[in-house]
Design a protein that fits this description.
By secondary structure, the protein is α/β, with parallel strands linked by helices. 48% of the residues lie in helices and 15% in strands. It contains 15 helices and 10 strands.
Length: 316
């Protein structure tokens, strides 16, 4: 499984449909860490999240007839919105399965973009299993949120942009849920810069991949509530991202809910941009490790901006 090669294919395939997002140098966080800290602003991507890259790559890899019959996916919100946006661009339709506790703001975004929504389950692993079952019963294509080589390849196109934007990259902080984003970025970056350190960042309340890698197998673990809904929930049995995270991610960091909220407030105040909980996880992890970053070129992936007004009000 050559993910770096898939990233190169994806880059050519999806480029007309995505933005090359800004890599923004931060004077404030650079002083804080004694390093050169840059933020990769996927919060400015279409639909407000990196997820468009993977969803678009997978949809464009399908035959036109498959897309026209309709596609199915499961999502906590961002992947579903990305798929709905992409389907609109391609003139197709689809259904998004979301957990019962999915963010109402993200569900509304999916519906505004034209996709149907069905609620199922309290954990993303259950939602994904139901979506796969529904797609199989109806003879429709299923687009996984992370457990798919072409989805991973699409997310990895962030790394193609990074290599063109920054000559030397020492450490990259990436929010970690199912592992699609970090797998794509790590696979491509390590093919170009073998010495780069990839740090997977999760909330303490939902660290299924971290604990699974530690145990050497995918674990079925419950997740506590977290403001980082984009990284919450379980991992599909047999997910291809497990081996990729095990082999490519150099270290892991967890952060508390209060650390996530503090980083979200601090980012708003210093960078003057809206971010969601999952993005704040990566920022908080970088701040937590700042004493180990002196003199390094650091990249933090700001994976999205989709936070509800109610949640933002609570944080503030």
């Amino acid at each position: 499984m050559d993910i770096a090669k898939e990233v190169i294919v994806a880059e050519k395939r999806i480029r007309p449909y995505i933005r090359e997002t800004i890599l923004d140098y931060s004077p404030y966080y650079s002083r804080l860490a004694g390093a050169n800290v840059h933020f990769k602003l996927e919060n400015l991507q279409h639909t407000g999240s990196f997820k468009l890259r993977g969803a678009m790559n997978k949809m464009l890899s399908l035959a036109r007839e498959q897309r026209e019959r309709g596609v199915v996916t499961a999502s906590t919100g961002n992947h579903g919105a990305a798929m709905a946006y992409g389907l609109g661009k391609l003139g197709a339709t689809g259904i998004v399965f979301v957990p019962q506790n999915a963010s109402p703001a993200k569900v509304q975004a999916i519906e505004r973009l034209g996709a149907g929504v069905q609620h199922f389950g309290d954990d993303t692993a259950d939602t994904e299993a139901q979506a796969r079952k529904f797609a199989a019963q109806k003879g429709l294509a299923y687009i996984p949120p992370y457990n798919d080589v072409q989805v991973i390849g699409g997310q990895g196109t962030i790394a193609v942009e990074l290599v063109n934007q920054l000559n030397q990259i020492d450490t990259v902080f990436v929010a970690l849920g199912g592992g699609g984003l970090i797998s794509g970025i790590a696979a491509y970056l390590k093919s170009v810069h073998p010495g780069v350190d990839i740090i997977g960042c999760s909330p303490q309340n939902s660290q299924v991949m971290i604990r699974s890698v530690g145990a050497g197998k995918i674990l079925d673990l419950p997740s506590l509530p977290t403001i980082s809904d984009g990284t919450a929930g379980g991992i599909e049995p047999g997910a291809v991202t497990f081996n990729l995270c095990r082999d490519l991610v150099d270290d892991y960091e967890t952060v508390t809910e209060e650390e996530i909220k503090e980083s979200l407030r601090e980012f708003l105040q210093t960078q003057h941009m809206l971010i969601e909980g999952a993005a704040a996880v990566a920022v908080a992890a970088m701040v937590k490790r700042r004493n180990r970053l002196a003199g390094k070129n650091v990249v933090v992936i700001i994976c999205g901006a989709n936070i509800s007004l109610e949640t933002l009000k609570t944080v503030l």
